[in-house]
Amino acid sequence: MYRAMDVSERARQIKQIAFQLDVLESICAGPYLAGDQITTADSAVFPTVVFMVQMLPDVFGWADVFAGRPKLAAWWRALQDDPAAARVIGEVQGGLKGWVDRDRWTELGIREQVKDTSYQWAY
Fold first, then answer.
1. The domain containing residue 95 runs over which residues?
2. What are phi and psi for residue 32, nearest 5 degrees?
């Protein structure tokens, strides 16, 4: 989502993100990925989802990262209520704000690439 790459590769990887979110939806046990407690599975996936929640709508035009993914939406809400997870959200969002302030998406050519309507960017 946030590195320099060829437009076709970026579009392929954005499509892959949608696919992987669907995979996570299919295996999410609830309320956390592996069941009733936060595990390393949640810890591994969570920081990347913080990026997705910010970037996919803002940069790639997704209406809702969790559309059609009710178990992941519930998982996200549950993690937002956890104090440690809330701290991570704040830290990652702070870093992303710095990128936005420096207009990283224009600097890397991402905004220009997303204008190419021959590719699908939002899922």
1. 7-114
2. -105, 175
The model's pTM: 0.92
Q: From CA 101, how far away is CA 95, in angstroms rounded?
A: 10
Mean pLDDT by 10 residues, the chain (123 residues): 94 98 97 96 94 95 98 96 93 93 95 98 97
- The reply to whether 72 falls in a domain is yes
Cis, peptide link before residue 31, omega less than 30° from 0? yes
Structural domain includes residue 60: yes
Q: Is residue 2 part of a domain?
A: no
Q: Report the domain count for the chain.
A: 1
